[in-house]
Automatic annotation (TrEMBL):
Pfam families registered for this protein in UniProt: NTP_transf_9 (PF04248)
Domain of life: Bacteria
Listed InterPro entries: DUF427, DUF427_sf
Residues of the DUF427 domain: 19-106
Protein name: DUF427 domain-containing protein
Length: 120
């Protein structure tokens, strides 16, 4: 049986960028301390420190999912939009820096990024 993890890779970078997140026109986060996560087959995802997200605008969701490469994710909802952001309270060791950091679905949230990603 083929190994689904073979060739799968995750790289974490703390870029010198500023990420602003808006949902339905409301600014919900702004961070100059993002963590960029590069994962095989997926677009770059920006994880933001929870201190840089206005969590008073969100409510915890009952949704939980499991990623074999990152661990169990919990979700946040915004207004009538369910599960617009996720975070890993206790990620697996290989991606430990993302613990508690919040990531937004780019299909719901508008992310604007200032600055360039470093070469990988």
């Amino acid at each position: 049986m083929p190994n689904p993890a073979k060739g799968h890779r995750i790289d974490l970078v703390f870029p010198e960028q500023t990420v602003t997140v808006r949902i339905d026109g409301t600014q919900v986060a702004k961070s100059s301390r993002p963590l960029a996560l590069f994962e095989t087959g997926l677009p770059v995802r920006y994880y933001l420190p929870p201190e840089d997200v206005d969590l008073t605008l969100f409510r915890p969701s009952v949704t939980h999912t499991t990623c074999p490469f990152k661990g169990e994710a919990s979700y946040w909802s915004f207004g009538d939009r369910a599960d617009v952001a996720w975070y890993y309270p206790e990620p697996i060791d290989s991606v430990a820096p993302i613990a508690g950091y919040v990531c937004f679905y780019d299909t719901v949230a508008e992310l604007s990024v200032e600055g360039e990603l470093p070469e990988r």
